[in-house]
Design brief:
The protein is mainly alpha-helical and 88 residues long. 43% of the residues lie in helices and 7% in strands.
């Protein structure tokens, strides 16, 4: 058994506690809340960016667009129906 350097939990700014168990399954249907969970899991070092890309079959560009949308406009921007409004 090897010790991992990553934390087991992360406390988000809104007080929510995020764990690896909260991550969506690899074959998930993407909705805004699941995208936000994955972005936060990477941001708070629960999983690496590379692991997220591999686990969910995401491209660098797709994941980066989620990150940018969340930073610039908040969780609402991750909704597919609002992509055109927030896309540059």
């Amino acid at each position: 058994m090897t010790k991992k350097d990553r934390p087991l939990t992360a406390t988000l700014p809104n007080g929510t506690i995020l764990t690896v168990a909260d991550l969506p399954p690899p074959s998930t249907r993407w909705v805004a809340s699941r995208k936000e969970i994955v972005v936060n899991a990477v941001a708070y070092d629960l999983i690496s960016r590379e692991e997220a890309l591999r686990r969910y079959g995401l491209s660098e560009e797709e994941f980066e667009s989620w990150c940018r949308a969340l930073i610039d406009h908040g969780p609402t921007a991750l909704k597919v129906t609002l992509l055109q409004r927030y896309r540059k």
